[in-house]
């Protein structure tokens, strides 16, 4: 099992799993726990079975797995990665903003919206777009308007 892959996707997986159990109408704690372990597959089951105390509830199982997959963030490095990003060839400004917004989550910026806006202004391919980006967190691409605060 590649622990690094799971570290990055564990939080996203839990969100998707939560959507699934809500859509399926699963409310019993025992069922949630069993589904989590079943749907996650044999690799995760093998890891889970190595824990000394797995608890009895869904929340206890999630807590154990979260602790296992948790990694210590290097905030300075996460911010370095964010600031090194540039708009890719052929990437729309809207997609670039979404990509930056996802990266900004792990940076723990005091104001994520402002940092995304500033990075767009500093690194977008179109200087026209950069100049049109007002200080109100709005980027106008001419075709659509993207509000950074809404992402």
Which spans of ≥5 residues are poorly predicted at pLDDT below 50?
136-151
Tell me the number of structural domains.
Answer: 2
Rounded to an integer in angstroms, the radius of gyration calculated over CA atoms is 20 Å
Structural class category: mainly alpha
**Amount of helix:** 55-70%
Mean pLDDT: 81
Number of helices: 8
The largest sheet is: 2 strands, antiparallel
How are the strands of the largest sheet arranged? Answer: 1-2
Helix and strand run? HHHHHHHHEE
In total, how many beta strands? Answer: 2
Percentage beta strand: under 5%
The span between the termini is: 32 Å
The outline comes out as: elongated
SSE inventory with pairings:
Elements lengths: L2 H21 L5 H12 L1 H7 L9 H12 L5 H10 L8 H13 L6 H12 L3 H6 L5 E3 L4 E3 L4
Antiparallel strand pairs: 1-2
Helix pairs in contact: 2-4, 6-7
Structure, explained:
The protein has 151 residues and is mainly alpha-helical. It has two domains: 3-69; 75-150. Helices cover 62% and strands 4% of the residues. It contains eight helices and two strands; from the N terminus they run H-H-H-H-H-H-H-H-E-E. It has helices spanning 3-23, 29-40, 42-48, 58-69, 75-84, 93-105, 112-123, 127-132, and strands spanning 138-140, 145-147. It has a two-stranded antiparallel ribbon. Strand 1 (138-140) and strand 2 form a beta hairpin. Helix 2 packs parallel to helix 4 and helix 6 (93-105) packs across helix 7. The protein starts with a helix and ends with a strand. Mean pLDDT is 81; it is low at 136-151.
């Amino acid at each position: 099992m590649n622990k690094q892959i799971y570290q990055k996707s564990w939080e996203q997986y839990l969100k998707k799993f939560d959507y699934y159990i809500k859509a399926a109408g699963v409310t019993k704690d025992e069922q949630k726990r069993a589904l989590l372990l079943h749907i996650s597959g044999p690799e995760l089951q093998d890891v889970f079975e190595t824990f000394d105390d797995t608890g009895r509830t869904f929340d206890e199982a999630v807590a154990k797995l979260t602790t296992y997959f948790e990694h210590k963030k290097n905030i300075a490095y996460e911010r370095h990665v964010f600031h090194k990003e540039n708009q890719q060839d052929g990437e729309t400004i809207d997609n670039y903003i979404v990509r930056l917004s996802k990266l900004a989550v792990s940076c723990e910026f005091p104001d994520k919206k402002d940092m995304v806006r500033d990075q767009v202004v500093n690194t977008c391919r179109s200087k026209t777009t950069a100049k049109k980006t007002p200080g109100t967190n709005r980027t106008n691409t001419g075709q659509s308007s993207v509000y950074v605060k809404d992402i």
